């Protein structure tokens, strides 16, 4: 079979939309909200301490999960 022959049955199904397609269309129709720019100093000692604390908590969570 050729690609065109395979595409023909699929083209009939492509006219039907799924819930996911509808959500994509709705999000595209809404105006995009501006994302807030966050300026974090990744070299700051406080940021490094916070990152290590978050990583440690996540590792503990992963151990408990097993």
Describe this structure in words.
It is built from three helices and no strands. With about 70 residues, the chain is mostly helical. The longest helix is centred in the last third of the chain and has 21 residues, at about 45-65. Residues about 10-15 have low confidence and may be disordered. Belongs to the PCP4 family. This is Purkinje cell protein 4 like 1.
Brief account:
With 66 residues, the protein is mainly alpha-helical. The protein has helices at 3-14, 19-29, 45-65.
Topology, please?
Elements: H1 3-14, H2 19-29, H3 45-65
**Poorly predicted runs:** 10-14
Q: Given the C-alpha coordinates, what overall shape results? A: flat
Largest sheet: none
* Share in β-strands: under 5%
Helix run count: 3
> What average pLDDT do the residues reach?
74
Oligomer: single chain
Keyword list:
single chain, 66 residues, mainly alpha, 0% strand, flat, Purkinje cell protein 4 like 1
């Amino acid at each position: 079979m050729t690609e065109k022959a395979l595409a023909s049955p699929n083209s009939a199904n492509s006219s039907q939309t799924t819930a996911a397609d509808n959500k994509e269309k709705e999000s595209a129709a809404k105006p995009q909200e501006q994302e807030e720019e966050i300026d974090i100093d990744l070299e700051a000692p406080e940021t490094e301490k916070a990152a290590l604390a978050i990583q440690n908590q996540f590792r503990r969570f992963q151990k408990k999960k097993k």
